[in-house]
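Lecture 7 notes: from sequence to structure.
We start with the chain below.
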Amino acid sequence: MGGSGGEGAAGPGPELSTDNVQGIVLALLSSGFIGASFIIKKKGLRRAAVASGVRAGVGGYSYLMEPLWWVGMITMIVGEIANFVAYAFAPAVLVTPLGALSIIVSAVLAHFILNERLHALGVLGCVMCIAGSVVIVIHAPQEQEITSVREIWNMATQPAFLLYVASVIVIVFVLVFYFSPLYGQSNVLIYTAICSLMGSLSVMSVKALGTSLKLTFEGTNQLIYPETWFFMLVVATCVLTQMNYLNKALDTFNTAIVSPIYYVMFTTLTILASIIMFKDWSGQSPGSIISEICGLIVVLSGTILLHVTKDYERIPQSRSVYAPLSPSLTTRLNGEFLKHVEDERTSDEEKALKRQEMY
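Predicted structure tokens for the same chain:
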């Protein structure tokens, strides 16, 4: 680790390692697939709600019988596989922020397919996401060399990370069993917080599992260690939880609200978890760390700008008094109202679908 740190301190430089380049390419492909999957799954959820009369946001699971939802699910799985492999090559501090591209893809497709308009401020938000991602890529840390899954296990069982894990589990339980039944249908932060918190743990486990498989394919079998299978169990648990609550969020709220908030929370928590567990910044100069933080702030600001712009457009002129003051306040004031507007704006589509089903 000392040698790795010495190399990282030599300066950020524009040069990227081969592993980092591979991680970047995979992360960009992943974001494209995942961004498209949001839109496809949203269309599938709408079709399922029309067919069954029960929305996923209130506990319905009819979307499991909807082919279009499965197309979106397969698209997301392809993106997640690419993302999985990306974490095996590059640090989470580099891979995770590149997920901003999924917001751009989602926003652009939503503009053309879901009639969720994207105007000048939305375009500015997309540009900010791209610019911030470029800064993060340029100043990305080099991945420290790992030769065994047991090294990752030692990182995962250090007191600081165990404290983070315990905090996440407690918060998720409180959100699921107390806040979700009371405020899940009116406050977008409930479902997205559950997804993001569990997501930060899943990424750490995905990185551990991906590294284990990478070492195995290179000739050093890691499947003989119980730690590898434990990380696999954590990944499965976290992903299933994320999928369930992401479906609830997408069906209850506008895609343009869910995607940016989920990205901001997920990225922040994942980077925090990675810094604690893998110590991504330990070998970097202060200048590089500050540049990465600035790039991250620009990316997060771009996604928030996209959110505020889209949220404002969902509010009729007569309700312009509730123009967004902050993402959380806007959601709190307009959660149920936005859902009502969403239902009204999709009524024509639902009628068309019903006519198709008659034939």
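Points to note: The CA atoms of residues 2 and 283 lie 8 Å apart. The two ends are 66 Å apart (CA to CA).
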